[in-house]
Amino acid sequence: MDDALALNILALVISAVALAVSVVTANRHIQTAQNSNLIPVIADLFRETRSPEFLKSMEFIRDQLTTAHPGSPAYRELPEDARGHIRRVGLFYDDIGKLVAHGVISESLILGAYGGAVPRIWELVAPYVLSERQKYGNASMAYFEDLAARARIHTMAAVHEALKLRSYTPPPA
Predict the structure, then answer these.
(1) Averaged over 7-35, what is the pLDDT?
(2) CB-based contacts of 143, cutoff 8 Å, min separation 6
(3) pLDDT for residue 72 is more than 90
(4) What does the longest C-alpha to C-alpha distance in the chain come to?
(5) Cβ-based burial of 121 (10 A; exposed 0-12, middle 13-18, buried ≥19)
(6) What is the C-alpha to C-alpha distance for residues 150 and 142, in angstroms, rounded to an integer?
(7) Count of beta carbons in the 10 Å neighbourhood of residue 95
(8) Above pLDDT 90, what percent of the chain?
(9) What contacts 105, CB < 8 A, 6 or more positions away?
(10) N or C: which terminal CB in the chain sees fewer CB atoms within 10 Å?
(11) pTM: predicted TM-score of the whole model, two decimal places
(12) Distances (CA, A) of 36 to 21, 41, 105, 153
């Protein structure tokens, strides 16, 4: 092999390595840009679940819905107050479910934060939502249902374990 051929091969190898490094770097920049755009969205989601209105709706669904409104009518047929609670919580989880299903936001992040509540709340509102679907022929809260199914498969505890979350018990005072 003459020196010119060896030099050309070396230049080709260096060019290929440089191209590979450029592609990896570009992908990292794209991922960083996408993640930075999601931070305000995620912060708003977390803020919403701490609002007094959301917490009141969660408490109503958890503690009063099925006893106050037996028979599982379509949720739009419930009194305005009950309907409002179901919509506030159900549509919130439905919107999060959309982000997860379409890969916009990490399933692990959402299930690690909300995975315990999602299936419990779905089980309580599902009879009303399913009646809604049957009576009005719509796909109401389908993404919420999907999120609940995901949360049954990938539990909050499993997400925390996979992340290797640590516990810390403070020493006695």
Answers:
(1) 74
(2) 93, 94, 95, 96, 97, 98, 100, 101
(3) no
(4) 89
(5) buried
(6) 12
(7) 15
(8) 67
(9) 38, 41, 42, 96, 99
(10) C
(11) 0.77
(12) 22, 10, 12, 29
**Tokens standing for 52?**
């007094």
R_g of the chain, CA atoms, integer Å? 24
Residue type at 97?
G
Question: Of 139, 7, 127, 36, nearest to 77 (Cα)?
Answer: 127
CA distance 135 to 5: 76
DSSP symbols for 133-156: HHHHT--TTHHHHHHHHHHHHS-H
Contact residues for 98 (Cβ-Cβ < 8 A; gap 6+): 104, 143
At 163 the three-state DSSP class reads: coil
The token pair at 49 is: 């679940």
Confidence at residue 31, expressed as pLDDT on a 0 to 100 scale: 65
Q: Which two tokens stand for residue 45?
A: 């989601």
Rounded Cα distance between 151 and 144, Å, is 10
φ/ψ (deg, to 5) at 26? -60, -40
Q: Which residue reads 């819905």 in tokens?
A: 65
